[in-house]
Write a structure and sequence with these properties.
The complex is a heterodimer of chains A (457) and B (441).
Chain A (H helix, E strand, L loop, with lengths): L1 H17 L1 H43 L6 H7 L1 E4 L19 E5 L2 E2 L21 H17 L1 H9 L1 H7 L4 H33 L4 H28 L3 H30 L5 H14 L3 H13 L7 H38 L4 H13 L3 H27 L9 H13 L4 H5 L6 H25 L2
Antiparallel strand pairs in A: 1-2, 2-3
Helix pairs in contact in A: 1-7, 2-4, 2-7, 4-7, 4-8, 4-9, 4-13, 5-8, 5-9, 7-8, 7-17, 8-9, 8-13, 8-17, 9-12, 10-12, 11-12, 12-14, 12-17, 13-17, 14-15
Chain B lengths: L1 H13 L2 H54 L14 H7 L2 E4 L19 E4 L16 H6 L4 H16 L1 H7 L3 H10 L2 H30 L8 H28 L3 H17 L1 H12 L5 H17 L1 H11 L1 H12 L5 H37 L4 H13 L3 H28 L20
Antiparallel strand pairs in B: 1-2
Helix pairs in contact in B: 1-8, 2-5, 2-8, 5-8, 5-9, 5-10, 5-16, 6-10, 7-8, 8-9, 9-16, 10-11, 11-15, 12-15, 13-14, 13-15, 15-17
The chains are: A mainly alpha (457), B mainly alpha (441).
């Protein structure tokens, strides 16, 4: 351990003497900080806008007065997903999922307000947020600055001298790996602390933020070890640099794109446009006769003596439509979930992609969160319209709503998404396996590097 | 002698396992990307044909039903009769579509995120059910393999790999010292070695591009000229990066410095350029906030809904044929969903007209800024140019949006008189199908 520490300390001071250390910390610090500030500013602007939009929706319902209930049902309610503070750390795939759903009677609408819809140039497979920026940038800088960490010493003969003088190859490699990891983490931690602090102060739970941070540090740490391994195995510093750049490119761009393409080929999903069109046509064919009796009996059991017949008919149509939508959309929903899982599995081919997807899951900014929001929106749609129609049924001959009924509808809708931020943040998913796998690979790589260093003498 | 040196350098490069391996991977990936793009486009073309067939079948069925109604054979309820204008306005099937251009498979871009085919009807746009193109968000965030993007992003790496020996020798080698002693100057020696490799890079990019374009299996309507232009764009882009390498070779001495600088330029101007340009354009010329526009549209809609009775009365005073019927319905508290929806849409269009114009202007200014800033990156310039050939540019999408609005206006003209007057013609209303007109380039 003492020898490892000596080598690590020596490398560490060499990093800063040569300037590589300062460059890494400054470049990562500046770009990371700019990313955090930009994302925080964007979130701070968008979060109140979304809240205001949600409040406007609620206010317009609360101001409906004695509007005809069926008309109110087709006005609908726009359920707006709160802007999660986790975007300060990682935008995940949020820009590609809609954040507002129109809850309308017997219609299941697609989510709207998708950020990518308003981009002039939609950037695919690029880092979005602090986490991805660090996962891209630090490995690239490690490749550029540390490619010669072993190869340079081999080229100038100092490695052979050290090994033949009795320096243990294990200590050399482990010391260099420790120093490289230390530099990667030293560069990552300042912007992570800034971003993490802002995120936690605005609602992200501490364990989630800590897990995110750990995932990013593991991702860059694995690459730091790979840099040492490649540098030890390469014949020349230039070969080391070229190899590391190709590895970086493969891990950061090629593997994720290949995984996405392979997922679409292996697990295709039906066309959402066809499904929606079919669902709409099928709803027009429903007559709800069979279900009306069930609702009538239920209302009478609940003490409603003469339920409004139009309300009972609407309830029947609503429940039949909900069942129809559940059947019709099921292939699309399960297909998307299958694609998400498969992508997580294929991402294990790259530690960077694994860390990125795993951190999305931990923060609740990935697919799972979007699916949960859409499921909750549909659940809210059914619940609000059933509440509306039950209230209507109890009115007897009247068809006009009341402030109490509108308030109940608003509360039912909002209750479904109130805690969506906290509840959709979860585990790393299958991508977490990739990090475990790559940690083992890196450990194995250390042994390879030790062998190569040992041969230097 | 120069020719001998030229051939020798090419032979040396072709002996490099790294270069050969990389070239093989590039060509294979290009072929794969081309095939993926071709499948994507063929799928869309099939969907458009199916939609047209569905429209024709529905129209035929409606005409047959109308004949039977007139003959007295059947008497369906009004909401199932194609002769009832309101019922038919919902049941009629019409689609709008943006057909892919023949070489569209070469550059999918963000086409998979945009609606290319959706149902349209005479009613307000919020009643069009399937306008959004949905997919798994993480897959959408990554995108698939786009032939043009693949080659544009990989070209700098090709340059780097092909020029490895030249860059290494820039830092000094025995071979170079010997050549300089014999040849005179370092830069001259490098130039002699550089030119053949540059030529081979251009040939490799052309081969990869051609392999990709061939794998698209383009339709017969695909013109060779357009394909040649796409290849030309890819080759010109490669030439830019070769020039960058040449400049760095001239300016810097150490090989690792040249590599690092080239890699950094590739990262900034090749990979991150779209993000940086979009972010810069949003800072310099902020586009309208999607949330704000959405909120204002919604507020205008809600306001119009709250005044719907006034709107009905105002319309009734201008249309004597519809007036009586509408006012009677109001007096009897009847539900006038379809006519009021149309009047509400007109009112929203009126109240939001100025704001929408301003939003379009601001949006255009933002897109122009993006176009201007894109000039900093050869990758973005090449991509925009190729996208304009393959039909993925903003101009074509804007033309589509405009034509959709125009077709909607046409559908409304066909129906709205009947819908507001709550009457029906003697025959089934059959508006012509939508046909996209390519914008003048």
């Amino acid at each position: 351990m003492n020898a490892i520490g000596i080598v690590a300390a020596h490398e560490w001071s060499a990093f800063f003497r040569r300037g590589a250390g300062w460059w890494m910390i400054v470049v990562v610090g500046v770009l990371g900080t700019l990313t955090v500030v930009g994302e925080f500013g964007g979130w701070a602007h968008e979060a109140p806008e979304r809240e205001a939009l949600g409040q406007t929706e609620a206010d317009q319902w609360l101001g409906l007065g004695d509007t005809h209930i069926h008309e109110a049902a087709h006005r609908g309610y726009f359920l707006v997903r709160p802007a999660p503070a986790a975007v300060i750390l990682d935008r995940g795939s949020l820009d590609f999922g809609g954040s507002a759903v129109w809850l309308e009677a017997h219609r299941r609408n697609s989510p709207r307000l998708r950020a990518s819809d308003t981009a002039a140039m939609v950037s695919r497979a690029v880092p979005r947020g602090l986490g991805p920026v660090l996962l891209w940038l630090i490995p690239l800088l490690l490749a550029l600055f540390l490619h010669g960490i072993v190869a340079d010493e081999r080229a100038d003969g100092s490695l052979a001298f050290a090994v033949s003088s009795g320096a243990p190859p294990t200590s050399i490699v482990l010391g260099k790996a420790a120093a490289a990891c230390g530099l990667a983490w030293a560069a990552a931690i300042p912007p992570m602390v800034l971003g993490g602090g802002l995120a936690v102060a605005n609602g992200v739970n501490v364990p989630g933020a800590a897990a995110w941070g750990g995932t990013v540090l593991v991702g860059v740490g694995v690459f730091a070890v790979l840099v040492v391994v490649v540098s030890a195995a390469a014949r020349t510093p230039l070969a080391s640099l070229v190899t590391l750049l190709l590895i970086w490119f493969g891990m950061v761009l090629l593997v994720p794109k290949l995984a996405a393409s392979a997922t679409q080929v292996l697990a295709p999903i039906p066309s959402s446009q066809t499904i929606r069109s079919d669902a709409e046509a099928a709803v027009d064919q429903l007559d709800g006769t069979a279900t009306q009796r069930r609702h009538l009996e239920r209302l009478q059991d609940a003490g409603v003596r003469d339920p409004n017949p139009a309300a009972v008919s609407a309830m029947a149509l609503e429940s039949d439509a909900a069942a129809l939508f559940a059947r019709t959309f099921e292939p699309l929903e399960t297909g998307m979930e299958r694609q998400s899982r498969l992508l997580g599995l294929l991402a294990i081919l790259s530690p960077i992609a694994s860390a990125d997807l795993a951190s999305d899951g931990l923060l609740g900014v990935g697919d799972r969160a979007q699916f949960a929001f859409e499921r909750r929106a549909e659940s809210a749609r059914i619940a609000t319209h059933m509440a509306l129609n039950e209230g209507w049924a109890r009115l007897g001959d009247s068809d006009r709503g009341s402030p109490e009924l509108w308030a109940e509808v608003v509360e039912v809708a909002r209750a479904r998404t109130r805690d969506i931020d906290g509840s959709t943040a979860g585990g790393p998913g299958l991508a977490g396996l990739g990090l475990v796998l790559w940690t083992l690979i890196a450990t194995g790589g250390i042994r390879v590097a030790i062998r190569h260093v040992g041969r230097a003498a | 002698m120069m020719a001998d040196v030229f051939v020798l350098e090419i032979r040396l490069l072709l002996r490099s396992r790294v270069f050969i391996g990389f070239s093989a991977v590039l060509i294979l990936l290009s072929a794969f990307a081309g095939w993926v793009g071709g499948e994507f486009v063929r799928g869309r073309s099939t969907s458009i044909v199916s939609a047209a067939a569905l429209e024709a079948a529905t129209d035929s069925a409606a005409l047959a039903t109308a004949d039977r109604i007139r003959a007295g054979e059947i008497d369906p309820p009004w909401y199932q009769s194609p002769l009832h204008a309101q019922a038919w306005s919902y049941a009629m099937i019409r689609h709008v579509h943006l057909p892919p251009r023949p070489w569209g498979g070469a550059a999918v871009g963000d086409a998979d995120l945009r609606p290319f085919l959706f149902r349209i009807n005479p009613h307000p746009p919020e009643r069009w059910s399937n306008r959004a193109a949905e997919g798994t968000p993480s897959i959408a965030a990554l995108g698939g393999f786009d032939l043009v993007d693949l080659i544009l992003v990989l070209t700098p790496l090709v340059v780097l790999v092909a020029m490895t020996d030249v860059i290494r020798d820039r830092g000094g080698s025995e071979r170079q010292r010997l050549a300089v002693v014999q040849g005179g100057s370092v830069l001259r020696v490098l130039a002699v070695r550089f030119a053949p490799r540059a030529t081979l890079i251009l040939v490799l990019v052309a081969i990869a591009g051609a392999a990709g374009l061939a794998s698209i299996l383009p339709p017969p309507s695909a013109s060779i000229g357009a394909g040649a232009l796409i290849l030309g764009g890819l080759i010109a882009h490669a030439a830019c990066w070769i020039l960058v390498a040449a400049v760095l070779l001239g300016l810097l001495r150490r090989s690792t410095s040249i590599f690092s600088a080239f890699a950094a330029l590739w990262f900034v101007f090749g990979i991150m350029a779209p993000v940086l340009v979009e972010a810069s354009a949003r800072t310099l010329t902020p586009p309208p906030s999607a949330l704000s526009v959405f909120a204002e549209e919604r507020a205008a809609l809600v306001d119009a809904r709250n005044r719907k009775e006034d709107l009905v009365r105002a319309y009734a005073s201008t249309d004597t044929i519809a007036g009586r019927s509408l006012l009677d319905a109001l007096a009897q508290n009847q539900q006038l969903i379809t006519p009021t929806n149309l009047l509400i849409q007109r009112e929203v269009d009126r109240t939001r007209a100025a704001a929408r114009r301003e939003e379009r202007e601001v949006r255009s200014a933002f897109e122009e800024r993006v176009a201007t800033l894109s000039a900093i990156s050869p990758t973005l310039v090449a991509r925009r140019w190729i996208h304009s050939i393959t039909g993925r540019g903003l101009a074509r999408r804007a033309a589509f949006d405009e034509q959709v609005d125009g077709y909607h206006d046409y559908l409304q003209e066909s129906f709205v008189g009947y819908l507001l007057r709550r009457t029906s013609p003697d025959s089934v209303i059959l508006p012509r199908p939508f046909s996209f007109r390519e914008p003048a380039s």
